[in-house]
Amino acid sequence: MGGMDTGQMGIIPANTQLQTSLTVDPGDEKHPPHVELFVATTNETILRTALIFAEGIFDGESHVVHPTVNNLSSELKVPISPPKDVAVDLHIKAFVGMKGSTQFHVFEITRQLPRFSMYIPCTKLPQEPQGSVTFTVQDRVQRVVLWINQNFLLTDEWPAAAPLHFQVVSLRGTGALVIHMESNGQVTIKTDDMDLAGEVIQSLALFLGIEDLQVTSDFPGYMEELKNVLIKVDEFSSVRQKLTAEMADHSNLIRSMVVRAEDARILADWKNMRKYYMELFDLNRDLVNGYKIRCNNHTELLSCLKLVNQAIQRAGRLRVGRPKTVVVNACREAFKTHNIDALFKIMKVGAM
Prior knowledge:
41% helix, four-stranded antiparallel β-sheet
């Protein structure tokens, strides 16, 4: 073969395999928290390059690990930081060969990154969550534990014992998540992140095949923020009405002033014509300034209305099926009629 040895030709042992594992790394002073992908071969072969394709995790949907010649070994470690709680398939392609090889074998393997991989179990919470969601399911604790083991990245499988008490801390800094289930099917999810509670409920309901789910929720911190937003909505709406009335008054004055100025010009009354046009100039300037204020007020109002709509959507995601649709529609109707007390009650216990 032209003097090429087996290594240069890319020949590797027939029993060579590619192994992968996923672990949660809480991070340290030098490295932020992340999920670590470990890729290794089963013998003395080396990994020259690894390509990882994953949607929504890497820039350009792909990541390449290319060690220098001096750092080649049979294993690679790749930090992964999923920005959202979504299950992602990691498509891995690894170039495997012997040291000194110029030709390599391509090994392909696919690993699924669990939906809630950026959470790490803890025995003691730094702070007990104030927000909670309570509901009842008809399944046994073992089924919920099976869902936990499939959707969280755990070192060991969680034991299927009743009552179930499972608590983790987010590596993204959004606080703790506690899942508690009694043997009678009552489930309590504690977290201050309303979005996370919705994601957990949607995932669990899909796994258990629940079509309709009504819940009772309580997020005091978030409700206080929403209350402040609603106060701002009232203020911006009031200012908007006032500015609209002032603009209408200014428009009427301008029309009147234009007529007076033109009459003075036709009558060659230059003194009054100058006076009217100076007043017209001032009125026009006030009108332009009022328009700028009205635009800024409108922008702020839209931002607050967007926050209210997001809050209603979050309340809907805490439910499944028909209760979800009913809650969203009832919340919008309550907001439309300025019935704030009813809005908060619907978000908490659902629509009657």
